[in-house]
Design brief:
Number of helices: 5
Distance between the termini: 24 Å
CATH architecture: 3-Layer(aba) Sandwich
Largest sheet: 7 strands, mixed
CATH superfamily: P-loop containing nucleotide triphosphate hydrolases
Bound molecules: guanosine-5'-triphosphate, magnesium ion
Number of domains: 1
Number of strands: 7
Strand content: 15-25%
Length: about 210
């Protein structure tokens, strides 16, 4: 898919304030600092459309972008940001879970996990929550440029083994680097194929 236009629409504090759910939507989620905003910029081939930061907790609102005047891309706040109070963390989690459960046009959630780590409890629990709530998702390994190929492959295999403890089938997996722009075209290909399928089946969002 060629990205012809990518426009920022708005930042929303709650799902009720999000733009009208009139187009297919693809959202990016994961722990704070995992690289969501960087990956979105790499996918869209824009330098600073989604705001990135070295300090975790940069994205605190639900950010909507319209791509090719045809679909929404969403940058969600990170979960599990340690340096805020417990009640604030719970508030963030509520914003995220309410958004996911109520956003009628959400077609797929890309769950980002850091390729440098073994499966983290918070990510595994979030993925299980997606399963329990029938949320369609894919898993995206980030920052793969920071890993040697063999260690990267080992971490991915570990992750698969962890998922297969609870899942019969593995979800789609993408290995990415925003730095090197790897894996980004595969994600776009998936979105493009899904959009075509939705159009073919005359799925309407309103
Ligand atoms: P929050 O909005 O705070 O939840 O963070 P985020 O998940 O949007 O992360 P962000 O994209 O802001 O990136 C966090 C840090 O990781 C930044 O310093 C990025 O430069 C760095 N980073 C992100 N992706 C990559 C990558 O693919 N490779 C490398 N080497 N660094 C990356
Ligand atoms: Mg961000």
């Amino acid at each position: 898919m060629v990205i012809k236009t990518a426009e920022f629409v708005k930042s929303s504090a709650r799902w009720q304030d999000c733009p009208e759910p009139v187009m297919a939507e693809y959202a990016f989620i994961g722990r704070s600092n995992v690289g969501k905003s960087s990956l979105i910029n790499a996918i869209l081939n824009f330098k600073d459309l989604a705001k990135t930061s070295q300090t975790p907790g940069k994205t605190q609102l639900i950010n909507h972008f319209i791509i090719n005047e045809n679909w929404y891309l969403t940058d969600l706040p990170g979960y599990g940001y340690a340096r805020v109070s417990k009640s604030m963390r719970r508030d963030f989690e509520k914003i995220i879970t309410n958004y996911i459960l109520n956003r009628t046009n959400l077609v797929n959630l890309f769950v980002l996990v850091d390729s440098r780590h073994t499966p983290q409890k918070i990510d595994v629990e979030f993925i299980e929550w997606c399963g329990e709530n029938d949320v369609p998702f894919s898993i995206v390994f980030t920052k793969s440029d920071k890993m040697k190929p063999a260690a990267l492959a080992e971490n991915v295999e570990n992750y698969k083994a962890e998922l297969l403890k609870t899942w019969e089938e593995l979800p789609d997996l993408y290995i990415t680097s925003a730095e090197k722009k790897t894996g980004t075209s595969d994600i776009l290909k998936f979105i493009s194929k899904t959009n075509e399928l939705l159009a073919k089946n005359k799925v309407k969002f309103e």
